[in-house]
Design goal:
The complex is a heterodimer of chains A (167) and B (745). Chain A is elongated. Chain A has 167 residues and is α+β, with helices and mostly antiparallel strands. Chain A folds into 2 domains: 76 residues, Ubiquitin-like (UB roll); 75 residues, DNA polymerase, domain 1. In chain B, the strands form 7 sheets. A 7-stranded mixed beta sheet of chain B has the order 3-5-1-12-9-10-11, sandwiched between helices. In chain B, strands 7-15-14-13-8-28 form a 6-stranded mixed beta sheet. In chain B, strands 16-23-24-27 form a 4-stranded mixed beta sheet, with helices on both faces. In chain B, helix 5 links the parallel strand 10 and strand 11. Chain B is globular and about 75 Å long. Classes of the chains: A alpha+beta (167), B alpha+beta (745).
Chain lengths: 167, 745
């Protein structure tokens, strides 16, 4: 592969800043974000789109970045976990996870925070079924999800969460 | 001592780093000179290595290649026994046995190279099941395939059968289960003869890795350093296996002179690392017509896989928990861990207890039916109470109140009303509903004399600014160790929680507080944190710088003055067993654990007779765990454990093909999602344990034990089908329902 395929230059608007990288066209967006761009908050859990640890927002939609070829991200607007807080000011979802015990080992947390924020952008006041459905693509092995559901409800009650795309 | 923080849900110490994505796990660490390492594994389950071939088209001269002959010291992963090689040199004993290590800067090329290595093996007969191993037709380990065996004898079982009106027999099985922490295992190593070996990694037990690396490199303790990176879940899966990855990364680093990172991908992590031991338990129980247990004969076997690793200890816990929290004057337990040609099975939350608790709690429902009692009435007549003895002859000194726990669990779950309602509504319904429960205990801390043997040490050190750092090898793996240690230290010193921090576990800087396993971190190590903190305060008091009842400002001033005038302000505490504990390893009798957590769990299920899917629709977990140090963390432990146990009960099925996991992906090994888990309602009873910090007991593993039998008891209540095996997948239910329908025709 390395001998026959040329690297290409891609550029993305990552957390509000244009970033470029020379990568193989089929390199995983996950590896580009974590490797070339050194944004390691996005995690790899399974590499096959099952666990959601690598979730980020691409052009406003939540994607599993392990399944996105780098070439497809050229020109895209990307939001990762690093862009969710404003400086030291946590987002409502992050504060709720911290208060309610939504994070234990923390490895699913970045993807879960992104998924929760995306859910609240779609449904500002989700019911139990919507929360479960909205987070079903993100696996957590520590919490049994109960405290994550509570965190989403808390974030929603605190009402400070803006669309994550607006940050 | 005032409890300003203990009992309150303070903010998780490393919580901010985790919710912002700033926490650094091993794969997030990168260094300029770093290269990547991979492991080339066997392709057959058992055989003799004939040769290794390196295929064409790979620039092999660019690679660092390590085989067994490159190991500077002993080719072993030291644990309890030394039977497991670091790299196979002559014999292969399981299909994922590591044989060759490769390192290169380019990950993509490395993967091609891994596929280009051929290991020629002359296959030998292999063993894949407990039955085949016990049949001893092929001996694959030692002289008889038996990794470990225990005998427990209480009273006289053989004479007791005569007193029984009814004898009930049953056989119960549990499958392997993958820990499935979301962070795959990984290590980074630097190693050379001058400086020794340093590794950073995802791990639970820094000193286990330390112990394994010393003989491998033939280096003294001070030349080996093990540092824990932020760790994304363990559940036992990062108890012993990290020693293997650390050894591999360090060998590649030693030979290449470069920093080497090995991070498994999910597929490799699932197939190669440890899983929960599969088990088979046979019960023969004698009971009087009025439901009193008179004899329990238990025959238990677990599959240990190819090497001894921790199977002896897993078997020990399985054995001790196999008779449940009941009083029976005559108990005989015969247990064995046997070898097969699968990768070694290992530590997983519960550590043998979930297997044997499943068996006894399913079995007692059968016993109840045999004597025409309800499951709860049979248990009430046999519950262990204060001053009575367990199977190992341990006298219970706590005022354990199982009937009270049962009453509360039934009230919270509306057990009786639901049971009546389901009985009325189920006939004719395609979705049958049922409710069931289990009552069980989990011993906290190491078994028997284990804690004395560990002799754990904790230190605390104060700065001139009056901040206090806890130094321990106990790891934060999501359970909240950092937070709990800080709460305990803050209250012991009477200073604010923010003044406490917990050092990163690093064998070069912290004492050995023992492994982060066995529900021991809060109870045993937390107690040492408290003692060490009190010793530190006492040092200040004795030096005349502080009075006993001080303010925070006075404490800060005293630290400053002490350090200015006398230097380092450090204190320590070493484990001492609670008085009166006696354990006899030869007869396997006595005080198996300092204390137990006690619990009753109720599961409600809905079984779809069209799709054969069983779902848990409600779950109530009532437990007595001593003092609750942090309500949110404690509930989080219970909820997470219950969810893992729901996975073990209904979804998580390891498919074996000749000793190899055939479904090593998250797409076909199914763990519960947010859509699969019911509301889990957690209730604590608090009866302080005098030898835990502020009365706390261990709880991490408890919630793994009870759900499986409660769920299968509920399935029996819903459908009349008595399943004896987990996981109860739709395929299993379909067959059982077809069999039942056939029997009715």
């Amino acid at each position: 592969m390395s001998e026959t395929v040329e690297k290409i230059e891609i550029a993305c608007l990552v957390n509000g800043e244009w970033r470029s990288a020379r990568v193989y066209p089929l390199a995983r967006l996950l590896d580009v974000i974590r490797g070339e761009m050194r944004l390691t908050g996005t995690k790899e859990g399974c590499g096959e789109g099952e666990c959601g640890a690598c979730a980020l927002l691409m052009n406003g939609a939540i994607v599993n970045s392990c399944l996105v070829p780098a070439a497809e991200a050229d020109g895209a607007e990307i939001h990762t976990i690093e862009g969710v807080a404003s400086g030291d000011q946590l987002s409502a979802v992050q504060s709720a996870f911290l208060e309610c015990g939504g994070a234990q080992c923390g490895i699913c947390t970045p993807g879960m925070v992104i998924a929760a924020a995306a859910l609240l952008a779609r449904h500002p006041h989700p019911g139990d079924a919507e929360i479960r459905e909205g987070l079903a693509g993100n696996l957590c092995r520590c919490t049994g999800y109960q405290k994550i559901f509570t965190s989403v409800v808390r974030a929603c009650e605190s009402g400070r969460e803006k669309s994550p795309g607006n940050r | 001592m005032e409890e300003k923080y203990i009992g309150h849900s303070v903010e998780r110490k490393e919580g901010r780093e985790k919710v912002t994505g700033r926490a650094r796990y091993v794969d997030d660490l990168a260094f300029p000179d770093m290269v990547h390492g991979v492991t080339v594994r066997s392709s057959v389950a058992r055989g003799r290595i004939l040769g290794i071939r390196y295929g064409d088209g790979i620039p092999w001269n660019e690679f660092t290649i390590v085989t067994a002959k490159d190991i500077p010291g002993a080719n072993e992963i030291a644990l309890i026994l030394h039977d497991q090689p670091c790299l196979a040199s002559e014999f292969i004993n399981h299909p994922e046995e590591p044989v060759v290590l490769l390192a290169h800067p380019d990950k993509y090329l490395l993967e091609e190279a891994r596929r280009a290595v051929r290991i020629d093996v002359e296959a030998m007969p292999a063993v894949f099941t407990i039955e085949d191993s016990l049949a001893k037709g092929t001996i694959v380990w030692g002289e008889d395939n038996v990794l470990k065996a225990y005998h427990v004898d209480k009273g006289d079982v053989d004479s007791a059968w005569a007193a029984a009106d009814v004898i009930v027999e049953g056989e119960y099985r549990t499958g392997a289960q993958e820990q499935l922490y979301i962070e795959n295992q990984g290590m980074i190593a630097v190693a050379n003869p001058t400086d020794g070996v340093t590794v950073w990694g995802s791990l639970q037990c820094p000193y286990y890795v330390h112990k394994a690396l010393m003989p491998l490199f033939g280096l003294p303790a001070e030349k080996i350093r093990v540092i824990q990176a932020e760790t994304g879940g363990g559940f036992g899966g990062k108890e012993e296996y990290p020693s293997m990855i650390a050894a591999h990364a360090a060998l590649l680093a030693w030979k290449s002179g470069k920093r080497v990172k090995i991070v498994y991908d999910r597929a490799e992590d699932m197939v190669a690392t440890t899983k929960r031991h599969p088990s088979r338990t046979r019960h023969r129980t004698g009971v009087t017509r009025d439901g009193k247990l008179v004899a329990m004969d238990i025959d238990l076997a677990i599959d240990g896989g190819a090497y001894a690793t921790l199977s002896a200890v897993v078997l020990s816990r399985a054995t001790i928990h196999s008779a449940g929290p009941y009083v029976c004057p005559n108990v005989r337990i015969r247990s064995q861990a046997v070898a097969t040609n699968a990768p070694p099975h290992g530590a997983f939350r519960g550590f043998g207890a979930p297997q044997s608790v499943f068996a006894i709690e399913r079995h007692l429902d059968q016993v109840a039916r045999a004597v025409n009692l309800t499951p709860e009435e049979l248990r009430r007549r046999n519950f262990l109470r204060k001053d009575q003895t367990t199977a190992t002859g341990q006298i219970i000194h706590e005022d354990v109140n199982f009937s009270g726990l049962l009453d509360r669990a039934f009230k919270e779950s509306d057990y009786h009303a639901k049971r009546a309602r389901f009985e009325k509504e189920n006939p004719g319904a395609t979705v049958k509903r049922g409710i069931g429960f289990s009552s069980f205990m989990h011993g906290a801390g190491f078994t028997g004399s284990g804690e004395v043997y560990l002799a754990s040490v904790v230190e605390v050190e104060a700065t001139a600014e009056g901040c206090v750092r806890v130094l321990a090898a106990s790891t934060e793996i999501g359970q909240g160790a950092n937070t709990i240690f800080s709460q305990i230290a803050a209250d012991a010193l009477g200073i604010s929680y923010d003044r406490i921090d917990v050092a990163q576990p690093d064998t070069g800087a912290v004492p050995n507080s023992g492994p982060t396993v066995a529900s021991r971190t809060s109870m045993v190590v937390g107690n040492l944190v408290e003692k060490a903190a009190l010793n530190l305060k006492n040092t200040l008091v004795e030096s005349g710088l502080l009075c006993d009842a001080c303010t925070e400002d006075e404490f800060v001033r005293a630290c400053k003055r002490y350090i200015e005038t006398r230097g380092t302000l450090r204190a320590r505490a070493k484990y001492e067993p609670p008085p009166g504990l006696h354990w006899d390893d030869t007869t396997y009798s006595g005080d198996a654990y300092g204390t137990y957590a006690w619990a009753v769990y109720v599961a409600e299920v809905a079984v779809d007779t069209v799709t054969y899917e069983a779902r848990v629709s409600d779950f109530v977990a009532v437990q007595e765990i001593g003092k609750v140090i942090h309500p949110v963390l404690a509930a989080g432990q219970i909820e997470g454990g219950v969810a893992q146990a729901i996975g073990m009960s209904l979804y998580e099925n390891v498919v074996w093909r000749e000793g190899r996991m055939a479904n090593g992906q998250m797409t076909n090994y199914i763990m519960p999602t947010a859509a699969d888990i019911p509301p889990i309602r957690v209730f604590f009873e608090e009866q302080p344990y005098p030898f835990g910090p502020h009365g706390a007991k261990g709880i991490g593993e408890l919630p793994m034990d009870g759900p499986a039998p409660a769920i299968l008891n509920a399935i029996e209540n819903a459908t009349g089908i008595s399943l004896r095996e987990i996981p109860a997948t739709p395929e299993v239910l379909m067959e059982a329902m077809a069999e039942k329908a056939g029997a009715l025709v």
